[in-house]
Amino acid sequence: VTGVPLGPGAEFDRVRAIAVALGSAAAGLGDDCAAVPDGTGTLLVSTDVSVEGVHFRLDWIALEEVGWRAAAAALSDLAASGAEPVGLLAAVVAPRDATDRSVAELMSGVAAAGAAVGSPVLGGDLAAGSAWIITVTVLGRAARPVSRHGARPGDGIWVTGSLGGARAALEAWRRGEVPTASVRRAFARPEPRINAGRWLADHAARAMLDLSDGLAGDASHLAAASAVGLEIELRSLPRAPAVGDEARRLGIAAESFAAEGGEDYELLVAMPAEFGAAEAAELRATTAVPLTRIGRVVAGDGVVLTLDGKTVTARGYDHFR
Amino acid sequence: VTGVPLGPGAEFDRVRAIAVALGSAAAGLGDDCAAVPDGTGTLLVSTDVSVEGVHFRLDWIALEEVGWRAAAAALSDLAASGAEPVGLLAAVVAPRDATDRSVAELMSGVAAAGAAVGSPVLGGDLAAGSAWIITVTVLGRAARPVSRHGARPGDGIWVTGSLGGARAALEAWRRGEVPTASVRRAFARPEPRINAGRWLADHAARAMLDLSDGLAGDASHLAAASAVGLEIELRSLPRAPAVGDEARRLGIAAESFAAEGGEDYELLVAMPAEFGAAEAAELRATTAVPLTRIGRVVAGDGVVLTLDGKTVTARGYDHFR
To answer: Which of A53, A179, A221, B167 has the fewest CB within 10 Å, making it most exposed?
Structure first.
């Protein structure tokens, strides 16, 4: 099988089936970005599809936010590679009765998310279909791209920002309520951690990925790709506002809620052991992005999640469920 | 309005609406590929979406052919830029009940079309939805990329291969019949003209695009982008087999049928006046692709189509109709 080893999950079984079918026609599937050698370093490319009714609903967020979110999700893959954005392309399938104005509204959101990190809209495609579907492809460059493999026993495991916000918004909408402004924003306008990703790459990041499927699932991909084990203490997780309330309603621990929530687009990164609180403070001073140590890399395989030292299980967020 | 001027059509009105909404956040929309300066020349990128029920039907072609066709359509944009492929990415939306095997079959077609022109699968994304939708993004490089602008009065207008084959297959399917093998192949397994595009770029091509919307429509884009007029004599068009039969059934001239048919993925190119039959023969000897002179570039604007010297009207193929 070609490509980077992946953790468990139905979507990843499908990726493995594709990798087997393609054999040598596929190169390096399974990392956040594809890497192409380039005269001035490495070109990083990633493509990301957002489907109405699966990734978003229009009774929850506006078309401009759908566009922002689709672009931010793709740009987040560049962030995880420590890349500087070059630009993006957007292929939009619009319902047959959509107006030119509504398509332009969606594309305004795509363009705004790109412009926020210096990534212009380079091109795109349009088609008619039965629902809104947006595929955003991003291009970036990095002198030293960071991948998912490279974590070593002894490294610290860190995470940017806070977790569980997007899930808290989803849970509120599913109950028919309106989420608070801050968790709504976490879902509708996630900020790709481009500057933090570049800073971490410049400061010897060993392995990195972005949290699109939730910490519990994505950590297993980093462990599999690096052929190491991870130990993560859930009590350390930085939790988004409203996570406590939402977890209580579901009757689960706030820490598990945060670990299982998808689509936060924060970075999970393995840093050398000597990287500590002083360095994290420097990142925050430079980029305004908090960085929290949540665990460590060990010899072995798999991910062990603990809550106050006691092993717990948590599952990833899977759009195929 | 940013971007390359486009000819008339509902899809292009929408592109114009997007360009107005995005302003400076969009760079150069409207050419076949986006061009990004690169240490070793120019990086060319294009994205192309294929929608079940709009661009293809699964009672007509197999999933492997859907994948081939989606990749070939995107690679054809690289051909039109005179670019050498670097690789491609494929984002696939599969119906909820699709098996891993059927997704792998589709991706095998994508990979085969890429492998045929040296373009490996670099990455992709998967999601579930209500129909099959494939977005293929291609990357290529060119020392001197060819765009749609650059045609000058006096240039000859040439076309590769033959026209109307894909439309002949569609008409047969719509009647409930089975198309002949050669026109079926024109629809299901179009060959992106990568080698011909590179040869033409190396031989001073002034302006080039690929015929996805049909000659009648696409010629107007080349004219608008180059700020020139085109005169095309339809009697000169190289016609695919079965075009005569299909046109007779519809009660129209075979030449109009060929000019209006979309999705042939042949190249339309403006060459300097001194480029002639001997040079076209050299292209054919090198790449096995025939090249036919069908008209010329004149001062002015718009496209004049003639049949035996008499002006005729023909319309482009528009997925939005």
So the answer is: A53
